[in-house]
Design goal:
The complex is a heterodimer of chains A (116) and B (112).
Chain A (H helix, E strand, L loop, with lengths): L3 E4 L2 E4 L5 E7 L6 E7 L5 E8 L5 E2 L8 E7 L2 E6 L8 E8 L7 E3 L3 E5 L1
Parallel strand pairs in A: 2-11
Antiparallel strand pairs in A: 1-3, 3-8, 4-5, 4-9, 5-6, 7-8, 9-10, 9-11
Chain B lengths: L3 E3 L2 E5 L4 E7 L6 E7 L5 E8 L4 E4 L2 E6 L4 E6 L8 E8 L7 E3 L3 E6 L1
Parallel strand pairs in B: 2-11
Antiparallel strand pairs in B: 1-3, 3-8, 4-5, 4-9, 6-7, 7-8, 9-10, 9-11
């Protein structure tokens, strides 16, 4: 089946630094990718919708200047957490749409970010 | 508003059936989903049901939908150790599945 990868799978950084997380669709083109954040024992919260070649659409309450999203190609979307703080520590997951039906959607394995 | 609720934990003996329940608030939901998340992995779509259906069966999985009560359940027959995971209920309003609202997830553990 279709595969979505994320890199890195986990990262530890110091407060104030920026971290880039990549989401790649390995065997299909994804015009739309979504970024989620998941806290321990909690649900996935949609952060933003990323469309190839256009600006991302952010959900209410998500700071677009802090969470920079770039969808430069049909197989790659990046999420950059700028000036990270400990409260940004979380599990970040991307989802890519391979088609229009609900069965054609694939999640990445997630990236665990720990900010010290 | 949109809200999806699930119990956090379920423990089942191997070989028994597991029933994971979910309630949702938005009566406009068009599609309802069940996802499985294994440790360190992304979410895997297990099954989904259209809002105009009452039941859907797929091998060991049975989904029941009670629209009146806004209640969704997932039954796993003959539960195996490989079924240990977190199961997320989710709803969406649009056929393109662009925006999906997830429940908090139910951690299913299997005891021998």
């Amino acid at each position: 089946g279709a595969v979505v990868s994320q890199h890195p799978s986990w990262v530890i950084c110091k407060s104030g630094t920026s971290v880039k997380i990549e989401c790649r669709s390995l065997d299909f083109q994804a015009t739309t990718m979504f970024w989620y954040r998941q806290f321990p024992k909690q649900s996935l919260m949609l952060m933003a919708t990323s469309n190839e070649g256009s600006k991302a659409t952010y959900e209410q309450g998500v700071e677009k200047d802090k969470f920079l999203i770039n969808h430069a190609s049909l197989t790659l979307s990046t999420l950059t957490v700028t000036s990270a703080h400990p409260e940004d520590s979380s599990f970040y997951i991307c989802r890519a749409l391979a088609g229009r039906s609900m069965a054609e959607q694939f999640f990445g394995p997630g990236t665990r970010l720990t900010v010290l | 508003g949109e809200d999806v609720e699930q119990s956090l934990f379920l423990s089942v003996r191997e070989g028994d059936s597991s029933v994971i329940n979910c309630t949702y608030t938005d009566s406009s939901s068009t599609y309802l989903y069940w996802y499985k998340q294994e440790p360190g992995a992304g979410l895997q779509l297990l099954t989904y049901i259209f809002s105009n259906m009452d039941m859907k069966q797929d091998q060991r999985l049975t989904v029941l939908l009670n629209k009146k009560d806004k209640h969704l359940s997932l039954r796993i027959a003959d539960t195996q150790t490989g079924d240990s995971a977190i199961y997320f209920c989710a709803e969406s309003l649009y056929s393109s599945a662009s925006k999906i609202i997830f429940g908090s997830g139910t951690r299913l553990s299997i005891r021998p």
